[in-house]
């Protein structure tokens, strides 16, 4: 008997039925096949909306995105029964929400105050004490975060306390005991956040705008303690505990082993020497020096195993109590305490939020690790702080976790076959394979982000992590937790010394890997659009289900190629006109009188991935003329006359560009002019030379008119109350 298909069955049952609903097209079928995985795209759309706001060159008021959001909401409601109208409307709604959230975050921030341009006596409350190295690098130093600061100057009499914080480095010879909550007084020299070193570079002013910082500086006098102020009791108590733990570790373990132990157990990174940071960066182990998800996972895992093992000893508890759930709750509480003890930094808070979702899934019988849980954490963090989308730690954390979830979803069965029936050697082999796979997935996903922000490629990072992470998991962190538990009783020294031995092995291994050939390869700066393209493509590769995800490899390759395809500037001018750099003969020649911002040269070298060289002697001593890609450029890198003497007319004749650290005062008017007044108005400059002419770009043109970009000559909001007309 022949089988009837569905059309024939329906016709026999009801002869009036002759047509079935049309089958969905290939795109609709692909979207329907994703199911609940489409939820993972909600935070992606919100993040793109926030990125759109930050990418604007001028402010956009809230009514336009609000109207778009309302229209999209109505469209989603009206078209809910149809797939494409519903998805498009929801996507536009999420984009609008992300844009509005970023706009609100920018406009609810406290305006930047006007900081004194000369040394000033500061009266403030200590919010935190941050250990660091002395200026000469030979001993410990301290920085304090000051809150509610008041300037004791004649023009600031009656000012309200600053609503932003100041970070001040204390004198190295100042031995005054300072603790959170103290009211202190000192003479200090302050400066506001620096502008970008080049158009398109990192923006410290935007970072400070959203972080609540007003500026930084250094103390010229010793600290005078006025009183122990009554601040936030819990916060001050936690800060005091952190400082005592850090001080105890520094006393027992002097040197870099103690500095790393302070980072792992108290979140204090200031005592780590630049040489140690460079070694860890070259070996791909810099993440070990910043408390984040790895450290929290190790702490929670150790506590989980300890509680579960302790409950298993009791037959009554093992048979009658929900041991797994009890151990999970105890591990999360311990993790929360660890996050508070290490300073509650943003990466650790994100990881703790993800752990909370894991705990909730465990208690409710759901899948412990899933893309939906990651999406919910990302959405919550973006809505709370949309500026996180620009933060390197946020990008690296979620790129790594997303790659791990997607990778283990794909490779779960091969790993299960590798473990076999549970033979000890297969279990050990599976553990090594999982460890290597974890390092490979997380490292590969975060590598482009690291290239975009730091400009360095570490080819040996998998090997280094394959050794260092197990050492941290089975040696360093367990002994560190034992030391914390024994510290109240004064019995922590043996555990700290054993912990230092493990840290010493990691440091030695890091130095060995950093000494390998090509351990650290400089890479030119990645354009912002390339980083955005990579992150969206990575989301497609990890979130999409099916072979179509492999199409995301095309934009990923394009994003990785962008640093080598985009032309780099041929000339840089620092934001204070103190330095000039010229890209010539495979080197970056830097010269000039020098300026207050010492980071400009470092940022230029990172952006171009070129070795440093001095300007030609003729250019560094007097006005000179050089050729760059067929264009003639006149440089005045030093000028003791402040522009009173103009360059000779013969030198300026035919020059396409005149760059001067002093006012041009009408000199070399035949071409484009960049002088000290240009920099004062528009910030740092970059120039590109082509056969068709010179293209210049200023920082103000790049960033536009935004809340965190001060106007020309702007120094901030006056500290005294303004008149109604003002």
UniProtKB/TrEMBL annotation:
ComEC/Rec2-related protein domain segment(s): 264-547
One Pfam family, short name: DUF4131
Lipid bilayer topology: Multi-pass membrane protein
Membrane-spanning residues: 38-56, 62-80, 87-106, 285-307, 319-341, 370-386, 431-454, 460-486, 498-519, 525-543, 550-566
InterPro entries linked to this entry: ComEC_N, Competence_DNA_uptake, DUF4131
Annotated compartments: Cell membrane
Predominant localisation class: membrane
Keyword tags: Cell membrane, Membrane, Transmembrane, Transmembrane helix
Region feature (Disordered): 707-726
GO cellular component, one term: plasma membrane
DUF4131 domain residues: 61-219
NCBIfam families for this protein: ComEC_N-term
Protein name: DNA uptake protein
């Amino acid at each position: 008997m022949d089988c009837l298909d569905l059309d024939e069955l329906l016709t026999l049952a009801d002869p009036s039925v002759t047509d079935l609903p049309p089958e969905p097209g290939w795109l609709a079928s692909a979207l329907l096949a994703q199911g609940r995985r489409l939820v993972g795209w909600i935070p992606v759309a919100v993040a793109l909306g926030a990125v759109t706001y930050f990418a604007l060159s001028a402010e956009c008021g809230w009514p336009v995105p609000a109207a778009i959001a309302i229209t999209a909401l109505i469209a989603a409601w009206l078209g809910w029964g149809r797939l494409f109208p519903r998805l498009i409307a929801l996507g536009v709604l999420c984009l609008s929400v992300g844009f509005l959230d970023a706009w609100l975050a920018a406009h609810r921030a406290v305006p930047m105050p006007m900081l004194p341009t000369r040394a000033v006596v500061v009266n403030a409350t200590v919010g935190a004490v941050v250990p660091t190295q002395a200026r000469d690098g030979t001993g410990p130093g301290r920085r304090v975060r000051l809150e509610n600061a008041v300037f004791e100057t004649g023009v600031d009499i009656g000012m309200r306390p600053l609503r932003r914080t100041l970070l001040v480095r204390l004198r190295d010879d100042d031995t005054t005991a300072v603790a959170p909550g103290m009211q202190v007084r000192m003479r200090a020299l302050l400066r506001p956040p620096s502008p970008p070193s080049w158009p398109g570079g990192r923006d410290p002013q935007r970072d400070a705008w959203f972080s609540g910082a007003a500026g930084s500086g250094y103390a010229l006098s010793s600290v005078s303690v006025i009183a122990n102020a009554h601040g936030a009791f819990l916060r001050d108590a936690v800060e005091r505990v952190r400082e005592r733990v850090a001080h105890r570790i520094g006393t027992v373990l002097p040197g870099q082993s103690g500095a790393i132990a302070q980072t792992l157990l108290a979140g204090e990174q200031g005592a780590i020497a630049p040489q140690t940071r460079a070694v860890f960066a070259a070996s791909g182990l810099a993440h070990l020096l910043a408390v984040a998800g790895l450290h929290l996972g190790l702490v929670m895992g150790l506590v989980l195993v300890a509680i579960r093992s302790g409950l298993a000893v009791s037959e009554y508890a093992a048979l009658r109590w929900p041991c797994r759930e009890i151990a999970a709750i105890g591990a999360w509480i311990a993790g929360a305490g660890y996050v508070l003890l290490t300073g509650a930094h943003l990466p650790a808070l994100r990881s703790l939020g993800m752990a909370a979702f894991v705990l909730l899934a465990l208690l409710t019988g759901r899948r412990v690790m899933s893309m939906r849980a990651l999406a919910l954490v990302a959405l919550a963090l973006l809505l709370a702080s949309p500026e996180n989308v620009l933060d390197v730690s946020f990008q690296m954390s979620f790129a790594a976790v997303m790659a791990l979830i997607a990778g283990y979803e794909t490779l779960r069965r091969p790993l299960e076959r590798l473990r076999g029936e549970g033979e000890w050697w297969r279990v050990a082999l599976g553990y090594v394979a999982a460890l290597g796979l974890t390092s490979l997935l997380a490292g590969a996903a975060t590598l482009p982000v690291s290239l975009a922000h730091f400009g360095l490629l570490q080819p040996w990072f998998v090997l280094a992590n394959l050794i260092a992470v197990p050492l941290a998991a089975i040696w360093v962190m367990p002994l560190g937790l034992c030391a914390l538990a024994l510290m109240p009783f004064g019995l922590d020294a043996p555990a700290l010394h054993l912990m230092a031995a493990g840290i010493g092995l990691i440091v030695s291994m890091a130095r060995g890997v950093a000494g390998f050939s090509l351990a650290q390869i400089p890479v030119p700066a990645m354009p912002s659009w390339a980083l955005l393209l990579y992150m969206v493509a990575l989301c497609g590769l990890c979130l999409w289900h099916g072979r179509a995800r492999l199409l995301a490899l095309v934009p990923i390759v394009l994003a990785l190629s962008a640093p080598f395809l985009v032309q780099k500037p041929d000339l840089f001018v620092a934001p204070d006109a103190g330095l000039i750099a010229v890209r010539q003969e495979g080197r970056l020649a830097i010269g000039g009188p020098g300026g207050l911002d010492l980071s400009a040269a470092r940022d230029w070298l990172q952006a171009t991935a070129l070795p440093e060289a001095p300007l030609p002697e003729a250019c560094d001593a007097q006005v000179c003329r050089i050729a760059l890609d067929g264009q003639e450029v006149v440089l005045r890198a030093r000028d003791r006359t402040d522009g009173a003497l103009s360059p000779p007319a013969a030198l300026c004749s035919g020059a396409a560009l005149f760059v001067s650290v002093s006012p041009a005062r009408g000199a070399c008017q035949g071409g484009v002019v960049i002088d000290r007044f240009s920099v004062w108005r528009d910030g740092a400059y970059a120039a590109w030379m082509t056969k068709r002419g010179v293209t210049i770009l200023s920082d103000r043109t790049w960033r536009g008119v935004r809340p965190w970009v001060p106007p020309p000559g702007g120094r901030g909001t006056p500290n005294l109350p303004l008149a109604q007309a003002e």
